[in-house]
Amino acid sequence: MPNPAHALSEDRAPLLRHDLVWLDPTRWEANLRTRLAPELYPAVRSWLAAGFPVVARRCDKPEPDNRIAVGIPLSPRRGGQRVALCVAPAAVRSVQRPPLLNTILHAVPPDWKLPLNNFATAVRPHDVGVRVYGSLMWQCLTREPYLHAASDIDLLLEANSASALPPIMYLLQRWEQDHGIRVDGEVLLRDGRAVAWRELAGTQARVLVKSLSTVELIPRKTVLRLLHRLHP
Question: How many Å from the N-terminal Cα to the C-terminal Cα in the chain?
């Protein structure tokens, strides 16, 4: 059962890590003013006033009043802090999954366009959705500088079948070697938890599995069984 602190309402699906959350401009200011360090308030107010989303984050214990744990990774231009917030469900206007890779290719920096286009082309025949989060996503959404020459790329893989994953992980390894760019990221399990693709591609007996409320070491065989149940 989902943690009730992470459920927006009975008619909405529970939040998942990395979900983008847009706040109602008529509700967020009063909600945040008393819950932020005074020195952070101007940057957060400017961020939200620009219409940028916050991101659903992990919370180790339920928040009071069913508040939702979210965060803002401010760009270096805005100070670079990672701001942790908790907001009332009533302050949420809309929620979206992180963007698909092919929907943000037009906005990626010039030096990244060819490598990412090559990866998007290579992955297209496979039955896997590829979403983007982290610095690349934030730069494309905000048009503010997040990336630098040594930046990683964070990808969220949504496989429609377990058999689709091995070729994608092979592609990721080859792409890293060919382009000299490290790919971090996760494979989304059917129950909403996620495991790092690099751990899944390894051989360790247990892998770290994360949700909005838990971090657990789980036997690798158990995770593989979850993947094989992607289709009922």
Answer: 18
Query: pLDDT, tens digit, for every residue of 142-194?
Result: 999 999 888 999 999 998 777 888 899 899 999 999 999 999 999 998 888 99
Tokens for 17? 């890590």
Active-site option among 11, 111, 154, 184: 154
Is residue 154 among the annotated active site residues? Answer: yes
Q: Which of 101, 85, 117 is nearest to 21 (CA)?
A: 85
| Cα separation, 22 vs 181, whole angstroms | 31
Q: Count CA atoms within 13 Å of residue 43 on its CB side.
A: 19
Angle at 209 between CA 52 and CA 154, to 5 degrees: 40
pLDDT by residue (tens digit) across 91-146?
899 999 999 999 999 999 898 999 999 999 999 888 889 999 999 999 999 999 99
pLDDT of residue 226: 78
Q: Out of 24, 152, 184, 191, which one is annotated catalytic?
A: 152
How far lies 36's CA from each of 64, 74, 165, in Å? 16, 14, 42
Q: 207 near 217, Cβ under 8 Å? A: yes
Helix (H, G, I), strand (E, B) or coil at 154: strand
CB 216 within 8 A of CB 10: no
Q: Sign of dihedral through CA atoms 196, 6, 132, 32? A: negative
